[in-house]
Amino acid sequence: MENYTFNSSTDVQNFRKRLEVKINDVIDTYHSLNTDENITDLQYNVAAIYLAMKKVSPKNVHFRISFRVKGERSEQKNIEKEFENTSSTIQKDIYAMRIIVDKIDGQLPDIADSVIGNNLDEKLLYTLSLEKTKTRNIEFINSTRDFLNNPLEPKTEEDYYNKMITLLTLLKDSTYSECIYENGDDESYFSKYASIQEAFRRKKIDNSFALKISPKQIKELHYFLDSLEERSNDKLESALLEAYLPKALNSHLIANTLQMKYDFEKTSIKKDGYVAEFYILHTPDYNIELQSQSSYRYQVGVAGTAFHNGLEGKQINIFDLFELTNPDDNKPLNYYLKFLDNVPFSEYENELIDGPEDGKSSIVEQVDNILKHIKLKNKFVMGNTSYKMDKYLELFANYVSPKMYTCRSARDLSTPTVYITEKSLTSNLSDVLRRRDGISFLANIIIDRLKTLGFDKDITISLTTNDIVKYAKAKEQNKAKSKVDEVLDDKAPEI
After folding, report:
1. pLDDT digits (tens, 9 = 90+) for 245-298
2. Distance from CA of residue 475 to its chain's centroid?
3. What angle do CA 421, 399, 321 make, to 5 degrees?
4. Which residue in 264, 277, 232, 253 sits closest to 56, CA to CA?
5. Is the CA virtual torsion 270, 272, 273, 278 positive or negative?
6. Is the Cα dihedral 30, 34, 37, 39 positive or negative?
7. Residues contacting 348, CB < 8 A, separation 6+
8. pLDDT in tens, 165-214
9. 386 - beta bridge partners?
10. Would you call 261 helix, strand, or coil by DSSP?
11. Confidence bin at 5 (pLDDT 50/70/90)
């Protein structure tokens, strides 16, 4: 915040009024825009963008759209963060969507065919060059794996260095120089390439290559081959979105029928590997933040080096929801809760299926023993109000969770149709509580309780292009009628 000097009681009163105006401005903005009517409108707008993308992009490119309405807790955080700004700076953040390329089937014939006509713009030509790079990378991956997996073919340390130099060259070309922490805690591909080159140079001068490649070197080659394969479509998918998304947003359905405009905001490339393009969509009633990402970059964000649920301000305390089964327990409550909070629920489930690993103590036995010592509280007191735990969990989940939706193609229908799915409350809460390695056993206790209360049901609707057009016409008619009614009200004589 700014520094203020108060010379009189009047200065203090004026400052208080200024704060009050700012707080009310931000709160009013959120609540005026976060309405059921706008959420319905959002679903039609997203469906229209999906169908427009399907129309303009190559048929063998498959994608999906996830979108959300910001939750109350996140709204509160934004009010605190944007305290010094006006409401206009946060309007774009209430509604957000992300369009992700899921996969590409084979080559891109639509692009290759149109090259013959020599009508491709620069972005599509760049996409075609990335397609060739992808093919080259896959050929190298397959041939190197065949080489490593063939027990009859001799493999020297010099082979290791030659393969590694080529592999790191391809990795450097396939990623972004800004993403220096993308390889986790290890050195970046760029610095790794430099160190391998130097080691190769010294060994070549000394002629000190080992006659046989080591198991460690084979493991390292497989690791980097997997890394290259993971991002084989990364830049290609991003380029496809960059080329075709503006075409979809400029389509008649989006620009004219739904009267949406858009601005390209920025390309974000971060050190931790997060990469996305940002647009702001302007509907007649509100704004939407739109991100476009490749499937690889999306995974980096939700479960990789750019995962951010654990960052400061993102953590959610659930310890206060629990209590000791026996108040006279010889260990404190946090002793049990911390243990359960550090056990991934997937690890517990895997052991139920496969049994404990050799030489390791049973996670299942430890968890089952600790569960005897803790339980969810029967009620939760907040201020002067006491809630039954089941009711409080519902309120808690709705407070901390955004409303999440997905938009996907309804391929089982003959006409262009999308399914819009509103995800369940348990699914939304799971996503908020999830760590990089999954949801903890402790968090899953809360999720399980909400499931028993019936909060685990998704809601799906289908929308066609015709549905969207009819909705847009009806909306325009309703707006026109409202304007007429306002004019008549203004002209009505006072009694």
Report:
1. 999 999 999 999 999 999 999 999 998 889 999 999 999 999 999 999 999 999
2. 31
3. 115
4. 253
5. negative
6. positive
7. 363, 364, 367, 441
8. 999 999 988 988 888 887 665 667 888 899 999 999 999 999 999 999 99
9. 381
10. strand
11. low
CB-based contact 174:181 (threshold 8 Å): no
DSSP classification of residue 440 = B
Report the distance separating Cα 107 and Cα 367, nearest Å.
49
Strand partners, 67: 97, 405
Q: What digits encode the pLDDT tens for the residues 147-172?
A: 999 999 999 999 999 999 999 999 98
The string of pLDDT tens digits covering residues 10-33 is 666 776 677 677 666 766 777 777
Rounded Cα distance, 214 and 210, in Å: 9
Q: How far apart, in Å, are the Cα atoms of 297 and each of 175, 318, 488?
A: 10, 30, 54
* Single-letter residue type at 321: L
Tokens, residue 229: 């394969």
> Between the CA of residue 287 and those of 42, 80, 184, 246, what are the distances in Å?
10, 21, 35, 17
Reported as half-sphere exposure (CB side, CA atoms, 13 A), residue 488 has a value of 6
How many beta carbons lie within 10 A of that of residue 187, not counting itself?
14
> What pLDDT score does 79 carry?
59
Q: Which residue reads 């895997």 in tokens?
A: 350
